[in-house]
Amino acid sequence: TNKPRIVILGAGYAGMMTTKRLTQKLGAEEAEIVLVNKHNYHYQTTWLHEIAAGTRNQNQARMMISDVFNPNRVRLIYDSVVEVKKDEKRVLLENSEISYDYLVISLGFETNTFGIKGMEKNAFSIQDIETSRLISEHIEYQFAKYTLDPKAKKEDLTILVGGGGFTGIEFVGELAEQVPKLCKKYDIDPSIPKIINVEAAPSILPGFNEVLVAYAKKSLEDRGVEFRIGAKIQECKKNSFVINDGEEVKAGTIVWTGGVTGNSILSKSGFEITKGKVTVNEDLRAPGEEDIFIIGDCAWVMNKEEGRPFPPTAQAAMQHADTCASNIKALLQGGALESFVFDDKGTVASLGNADAMGTVFSGTKLYGKSASAMKKVIDNRYLFLLGGPRLILKKGKLRPF
Ligand code: FAD
User: Fold this and answer.
1) How many angstroms separate the CA atoms of 373 and 380, rounded?
2) Within this chain, do residues 253 and 127 fall inside the same structural domain, yes or no?
3) What is the pLDDT of residues 303-338, one digit of tens each?
4) Which of 17, 40, 46, 212 has most ligand 1 atoms within 8 Å of CB, for mutation?
5) What angle do CA 339, 332, 263 make, to 5 degrees?
6) Catalytic residue (one of 50, 170, 174, 177)
């Protein structure tokens, strides 16, 4: 058959929702849909801080892709993308290659250490299921060996988190919950372990309302988190950060959450890059490309009102997917392409399982248990969009606290 082939690279929020929408918008005879992903499972990137802290089992945060899409309807290829040869309309994978008529690049983010000396080598990062699981295993190992190893030092139980943005703060919130549990499990005096968050800017959570920031900071401090704000990390050594004028903060676990950028496959494939991502047209196509869409954390989408790009979020990635699928349909069936319009539904940051803060519905502030419940509603809503009530029952956050 000569059906046009749509290839989607990356099964994150953007890739999964684009595939879902395409299966809804297009008949099976209209196009062949191919989804390429590194793993045979899809994971919830927005839950990775919970996996990294050890407060949630990794299996709840992931699902088999073939449980969501019928492999007869969507061709599933589990392989790693190596490079897009856009002039030849094909994609090189680690073990094979595939040609396309329409391409969607939704390969997500990569950690960015901004060249801080030693950071890439010595710090863990919250990137995917595997790197996140490694962090919780490493922390638990530090606790498990503390009472056994005569050479163990108190600072082995310190967890140092670089970066006080959204991910860093959500992560220390989970740690504040997990550390007391580990103390109980391994009979360790709870006054020994420390959780220290280091942020170079004058405040944590840039972009959040200052009342909400103050709430988050106090909630976390009350549960033992220490903040070093306005502290510039000069170097990451094997077991420490060197900050400001040379002060050394020691730890047994170091996690960098201070920066992300677009997937490096973009630059490898010859796209024009701005700060690690491609600035896309209003219809979400790459500049100068008729048949390539770039969405999710790989794309800068301009907020014309503010003259700068929207921040990368799962919320935006899912909305990109709607526009992208509609525009592919328009390309196939004829008709005008639509421009992306962001519908900001607010942002809620968790501070552990039972506390959160954020804004919803054009600016209403939420705190504490109600915010935490709202956060779980947001997480479950995504599962509903993807797989209906069945997926919520299987993978949802069903216990309120
Ligand atoms: P991803 O979800 O990262 O998916 C990319 C996919 O591509 C992955 O499945 C990956 O395996 C695959 N892939 C990567 N490279 C290759 C390759 N070479 N070959 C094949 N496959 C590949 N946003 C919110 O809106 N709300 C939140 O509360 C929130 N919380 C967050 C908490 C944490 C801890 C983190 C890290 C992020 C959070 N974000 C949140 C941001 C949000 O997760 C991202 O904006 C979102 O995941 C972007 O979606 P995406 O589809 O572009 O990328």
Assistant:
1) 11
2) yes
3) 999 999 999 999 999 999 999 999 999 999 999 999
4) 46
5) 60
6) 170
Residues 192 and 316 in one domain: no
The overall average pLDDT reported for the chain is 96
Nearest CA to ligand 1 atom 46: 314
Give the structural domain span for 220: 119-259
Decide if pLDDT at 401 tops 80: no
Q: How many Å lie between the centroid of ligand 1 and the Cα of residue 47? A: 10
Cα 152 to middle of ligand 1, angstroms: 36
Are 369 and 190 contacting, i.e. CB atoms less than 8 angstroms apart?
no
* The pLDDT value given to residue 362: 77
Six-digit token string for 381: 């809503």
For residue 145, being part of any structural domain is answered with yes
- Residue 71: partners with Cβ closer than 8 Å, 6 or more residues away: none
Please report which confidence band the pLDDT of residue 125 belongs to, taking 50, 70 and 90 as the band edges: very high
Q: What's the mean pLDDT in 171-195? A: 98
How far, in Å, from the CA of 272 to the mean position of ligand 1? 21
Q: How many domains does the chain have?
A: 2
Residues 277, 246 share a domain: no
Average pLDDT on 125-153 reads 97
Residues 149 and 198 both lie in one domain: yes
Which among 259, 284, 313 is the end of a domain?
A: 259
Structure tokens at 364: 């209403």
Note the pLDDT of residue 1: 64
- Is residue 212 in some structural domain? yes
Q: Residue 218 carries which side chain, given as an amino acid letter?
A: K
Residues 6 or more apart whose CB falls under 8 angstroms from that of 23 comprise: 33, 69, 73, 74
Indicate which CATH number applies to the domain containing 142: 3.50.50.60
Q: Is any ligand 1 atom within 6 A of the Cβ of residue 263? A: yes
Q: How large is the average pLDDT for residues 154-175?
A: 98
Looking at 237, 259, 281, which one is the last position of a domain?
259
